[in-house]
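Hi L.,

You mentioned the student needs an example of a multi-chain input paired with its predicted structure. This one should do, with 418 residues in total across all chains.
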Amino acid sequence: MYYSKADLAQLEHRERINLINSVSGIKPVNLIGTASASGATNLAIFSSVVHLGSNPALLGFILRPHQEVRRHTYENILATGVFTLNHVHRDFVQRAHYTSAKFPDEVSEFAACGLHEAYREGFAAPFVRESQLQLGLRYRESIPIPLNRTTLVIGEVENATIPDRVREEGGHLDLSRVDDVGLSGMNSYYALEKIAQFPYARPEELPLF
Amino acid sequence: MYYSKADLAQLEHRERINLINSVSGIKPVNLIGTASASGATNLAIFSSVVHLGSNPALLGFILRPHQEVRRHTYENILATGVFTLNHVHRDFVQRAHYTSAKFPDEVSEFAACGLHEAYREGFAAPFVRESQLQLGLRYRESIPIPLNRTTLVIGEVENATIPDRVREEGGHLDLSRVDDVGLSGMNSYYALEKIAQFPYARPEELPLF
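Structure written out for the whole complex:
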C-alpha cells in the first residue's frame, strides 16, 4: 500500500503513531537505569539508542520533550552524571516493556516490574541484574532538536560487561546467543537469529551479484 | 567479561571499533538512496536511523564527519532536498552490505551492487526496487554533534510504501513477513522473528511478574 503525506496525516491518531514508529525498521531495546541524588532508582525502556562513534565511545538516545512532563531518567542523569544501558533478553521482555507504564513518582520500575538492581563499586547508577549485556555510561552532552523539542542525550561508555559466549573473533558479537530482542513500533518484539557476517567491503573484492 | 574504560582503550583498533559498534544492540538496516542535481545516483547502507517523532513524522540518521571525506549521500540531500530509506530483506542483504565499499566517484552503488532504481513522479531521489518497504523523505535540518564532529541529519516522511501483508491492525507492523534484517556492529546480520506484542503499558493493568 502507498501512503502519500496526506494519507499519513489522515490516519487515526494511535494508528499513525504506531505506523510511523515502525517504518524505520527494527530498533534496539535497552533499559536505562538511573538513580537520583538521594539514591531512588528509575528504570525506563528506550528504543532510540544510537551509535555515534567509537573513539571516544559515544552512544546517544532521544529524549521526548521534557519541558512538560517529568523525565526521571533525564533528571537523574543530570544529577549523578551517569546511567546504565542494559540489553533485554527474551525471558524478561514483558517485564521490560512494562517499565514504560506511568508509575507514581515514589515507585521504582525495578520493584514494580520484578527486575533487580545490581551495582558496581564507584558507579552510582543501577544495572539490571537480569541483563547479561550491561554498559555503564558517563553523561557528556545534551543536544536540543528544536524541530520537535526532543533532545539527543549523549553518554560515553565507561565500562561494559559482555558474556564470553557472545564474543566472536575480532570484536564481533552474536547477540542471538543471549536471546537479545529487537522492537518495531512501541509494542512488537522480535527474536534475532544471526544469518551472515560479511567482511569489510572493498570494491576490488566485490562478489558476483 | 568485564571491560573497564582502560580495557576498552587497550583493545586493538579494529576490534575496538567492532565491539563498540555492537554493544548498543540490534540496529536497523536502511539503504539511503539519493541523486545529485544532475541525476547521478548514490546508494549507501546506514544502521543509525532513529525515530524522532510522529507528528511531524521525523527520522534522523548519523553522518560521519563530512569535513574530510566526500559524503555523496549528504551532498545529494542538500542539493535536491530529498532522500529515500529502503528496508533490506534477507534475499539481498549481501548486495546491500557491499554498497559500503568505496567505489570511484563516477560509479553508482546501484549498478555496482546489482540493485535497481525505482522512481515516483515528482520525487527526485531513487528508491530501491528490490526493497518492499520504502520511504520518501524531505530534508529538514542538520544538527552538528561537536563532540565527535558527526551530524544528525533529519528528514520528514513524505510518502511510505508498505506491503499489505506486513500491516497489522492499529498501525502495527510485522517486519518478519518481508524478511527484514537487523545488524550488529558493521558486519553481522540477523533475521527477525516476531515473538510478542504487548499492549500500551498501564500501571493498573500490570501482569503478575
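You could point out the following to them. Chain B has five helices and 13 strands. Residues 13-22 of chain B form the longest helix (10 residues).

Best wishes,
N.
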